[in-house]
Specification:
heterodimer, A: alpha/beta, Rossmann fold, six-stranded parallel sheet, B: mainly alpha, Na+/H+ antiporter like fold, 6 strands, 69% helix, elongated
Chain lengths: 207, 622
């Protein structure tokens, strides 16, 4: 693999990490990748006392920012909201002179218990994942960042070990490609989930 | 005898010092070293010590007595209960079957059934001293075979009690006519002897429960270490003496006393005080066993002796192997277990001499069987050596692989040294969170109270390495040094870092100076006892003054963080007084600045919604 051109910062937010099979598998799959910094917010700030300057420095030294978290009540766990509120300061991340994050890339990596079918306008949850992530999309836009479709693992309670491994491998594949710049933003935007892009790419590569 | 005492002592000690290291270096274990030393200085090789070997055995038997006290001490009822199936199952199988087989063999050899039964019982015993020592030296005491061995030995040790009580009954027919009664016990008729034995046993148990613990508490309060050691020796000797008075094995008495005290808070302290005496006396015991092996007898009828030893060991081995099978031991574990326990134990010496007193056995046969016992004990380390070097490598399964991970956690993962107000809050919190800790404190009243409240607390000076060791400092993950007296705490930390470098240390510091001291020692996790509390008061003061609680809390959290960072920065300068003062001022300034910045530079702290910032869309207040 060539040298990573896009340093990646994974902001990992999970209050019950020790009980999440899927997140353990995902984290394990990517933790050792070069150019990837895994930053576990609940482990670093159990008291919610986020060190803003430290976070800013981490953001400044990366090109791609990933918010990896489970979907709780159709949103992120509380600490991520706290992080967004405190770190993305006016005059630094947005507003006049707030260009620190300009042209960086942001995306969500989501795990949800409900299956993909249930997150449809005619499904049990009425809204699609994309719609539920609108606040993140707009936050990224406000900070002049490029927002990508999410990478999503759903139906997490019913995953077999093989499926778990497959999702983990796919996630690693995603980070490798993002990291070495092997993607076109316009092309990615055509997919609801980055999973679909990766699967398609896979089939395309091995005809 | 007096003039020769020093000379004899020198010979014994020199033999031990010479042979034991050689034996250990050759991988034979210390027991064989002691036995070889004994044989060498005995009357049949160098003749440095003569007929008094028997007397020495008698004296050194006290080592066995002390060992039984320690075994009793380690016999926590809870642990016993956990192992009950293993103990009862394996113990009964091994002991019952071996006794029956050997009894049958001796009956075929023309002995009356009483004598055969007595011999069978005695020969079924294995040597606790040899096996436990060997297992511990090889680090095998927590393996499956180690635990099985411990269970069988325990069963045998306990079985000695009823056997000693029952032996006079076996002698009923032949005993009345025999010689002049020597003990108080011997003057009684058979049924009364049995009663007297049971009475003595009850006396030891009752004394232990209602007299000794309060007595130890009294001694502990005087805070004189040597007095405690003296008391420990006193207890052991008193129990032994009481038993001897009624003509019973002193080993039995101390074993009982040990069990009774196993549950008391003084367990570790007693263990540590008796241990060195036991070690020396046990070594002496093995030397004297070696010295007293009657080679004359063996040389008279060598083939017979060898066949006898071989027969007994084979029978024991086969029964043990079956027992191991039933306990589902793997083949390599089972070989270790069966070969390890195949010898005849030191209790057999005790039982045989009792039998000859009771005239169950003739003097000639007593000598022969004691010879068999000694020879089989000598053979054990050799058997294990053969197993180690020749048999096991063929299977290619190292016995260490069986060490299960959770076995290490048998002891509690956290040790709390010092259980004053500080340690006790910590201990309560940990217990509420499901983490058990071992607590060491040297205030006997407090330990007493804690134990009544169900804590696992031990009385002991935590700065003593042996006490730390028996509290499990080798296996524990963490030690919290929570002693209130800074000097004692420093001492503890220093010793732990030196002797248990793997043990993670978390340290209570009385104040800033104290914290600096620990920093100099290279400790990373330092907790100043007043810091968090005073900051909490400060947070509440702010809240009372009308600050938002959350802002006050965050200011407090930040203050602690800054303060700790400042400590780190100051630590290298503290020896240089003027630089230190300068730095303190500078640091206070930094703190003020940081805190002030926190309030002015981060308005979103007081106002959660970032888009409310006046730069975005809110109208600028006039």
């Amino acid at each position: 693999m060539s040298d990573p051109v896009n340093p990646i910062l994974i902001l990992f937010i999970h209050p019950r990490f020790e009980q999440s099979r899927i997140n353990r598998a995902l984290v394990r799959a990517v933790a050792d990748l070069p150019g990837v910094t895994l930053h576990d917010l609940y482990e670093n700030y159990p008291d919610f006392n986020i060190q803003v300057e430290r976070e800013k420095a981490l953001l400044a030294s990366s090109q791609i920012v990933i918010w990896q978290h489970p979907l709780y009540m159709y949103g992120a766990p509380a600490l991520l909201k706290q992080w967004l509120d405190l770190v993305l300061e006016f005059g630094w991340a947005h507003g006049s002179g707030g260009d620190a994050l300009k042209d960086k890339i942001a995306l969500n990596v989501i795990t949800s218990g409900g299956a993909r079918e249930s997150y449809q306008n005619n499904g049990r949850n009425h809204f699609t994942i994309g719609e539920l992530l609108a606040p993140f999309h707009q936050t990224a836009s406000l900070c002049k960042m490029t927002y990508l479709p999410p990478f999503v693992v759903q139906g997490t309670y019913l995953l077999t070990d093989q499926q778990l491994d497959r999702h983990a491998a796919l996630y690693r594949n995603l980070l490798e490609r993002l990291s070495r710049g092997d993607f076109q933003v316009e092309a990615l935007r055509r997919f609801a989930f980055l999973n679909d892009w990766l699967e398609q790419g896979r089939e395309g590569q091995t005809p | 005898m007096n003039h020769g005492f020093l000379q004899d002592a020198l010979i014994y000690l020199a033999a031990a010092i010479l042979f034991v290291p050689v034996a250990k270096r050759l991988g034979m274990g210390s027991v064989l070293g002691y036995l070889l030393a004994g044989i060498t200085i005995g009357p049949f090789v160098l003749g440095l010590v003569g007929g008094e070997g028997r007397d020495v055995i008698h004296f050194a038997e006290f080592g066995v007595v002390m060992m039984l006290f320690l075994i009793g001490l380690e016999l926590e009822p809870a642990q016993f209960w956990r192992m009950r199936r293993l103990i009862l199952g394996s113990g009964t199988t091994q002991f019952g079957l071996t006794t029956l087989l050997l009894m049958g063999a001796f009956m075929l050899g023309g002995f009356p059934w009483q004598a055969s039964l007595a011999i069978g019982l005695a020969l079924s015993m294995s040597s606790t001293a040899i096996v436990l020592q060997t297992l511990r030296e090889k680090g095998l005491d927590q393996t499956q075979s180690g635990r099985s061995a411990f269970a069988v030995l325990l069963y045998q040790d306990i079985a000695v009690i009823p056997i000693l009580a029952a032996l006079p009954l076996l002698a009923l027919q032949s005993f009345q006519a025999a010689g002049e009664p020597s003990t108080f016990l011997a003057r009684l008729p058979g049924w009364a002897q049995t009663l007297a034995l049971l009475g003595a046993v009850a006396a030891v148990i009752l004394c232990g429960r209602f007299l000794i613990v309060p007595f130890l508490r009294f001694i502990a309060r005087i805070h004189l270490r040597e007095l405690f050691t003296a008391s420990a020796l006193f207890i052991v000797m008193a129990a032994a003496y009481l038993m001897e008075l009624v003509g019973l094995s002193p080993a039995l008495g101390t074993f009982l006393a040990g069990i009774v005290l196993a549950n008391s808070e003084y367990r570790h302290e007693l263990e540590c005080d008796i241990e060195p005496f036991k070690g020396i006396l046990l070594g002496l015991f093995f030397i004297s066993v070696g010295a007293s092996i009657n080679f004359g007898l063996i040389l008279q009828k060598p083939l017979f002796m060898i066949l006898l030893v071989f027969g007994v060991v084979t029978v024991k081995f086969l029964v043990l192997f079956l027992t191991g099978r039933l306990a589902r031991l793997g083949l390599d574990q089972n070989l270790l277990f069966s070969l390890g326990l195949a010898q005849v134990g030191e209790f057999a010496f005790v039982l045989f001499s009792f039998m000859s007193q009771l005239r169950i056995l003739s003097a000639d046969w007593t000598d022969t069987l004691m010879g068999v016992t000694a020879l089989s004990m000598t053979a054990t380390p050799l058997l294990l050596l053969i197993n180690d070097r020749l048999i096991l490598p063929r299977f290619g399964v190292p016995e260490k692989a069986d060490k299960e991970v959770d076995e290490i956690d048998l002891r509690h993962p956290v040790i709390i040294a010092g259980f004053g107000p500080f340690g006790s809050t910590l201990g309560r919190f940990l217990r509420a969170s499901g983490v058990e800790s071992t607590i060491l404190d040297n205030d006997s009243d407090r330990v007493d109270l804690l134990r009544r409240m169900g804590f696992k607390a031990f009385y002991g000076d935590a700065t003593r390495i042996d006490i730390l060791k028996s509290a499990g400092a080798d296996q524990a993950k963490l030690l919290v040094a929570a002693i209130g007296l800074p000097t004692v705490n420093h001492d503890l930390v220093e010793k732990v870092r030196k002797h248990f470098p793997k043990l993670k240390l978390m340290v209570r510091a009385a104040n800033r100076q104290d914290a600096f001291h620990f920093m100099d020692m290279g400790v990373n996790d330092i907790y100043r006892e007043t810091l968090d509390t005073s900051v909490r008061v400060g947070v509440d003061v702010l809240a009372r003054l009308g600050h938002r609680r959350y802002s006050a809390l965050r200011a407090g959290q930040n203050f602690i963080r800054y303060d700790e960072k400042a400590m780190q920065k100051l630590a290298p300068h503290r020896h240089d007084k003027s630089a230190y003062i300068f730095n303190v001022r500078e640091q206070i300034q930094i703190q003020e600045e940081l805190l002030a910045n926190d309030r002015t530079a981060n308005p979103s702290l007081n106002d959660h919604a970032w888009d409310n910032h006046r730069g975005v869309d809110a109208p600028t207040p006039k």
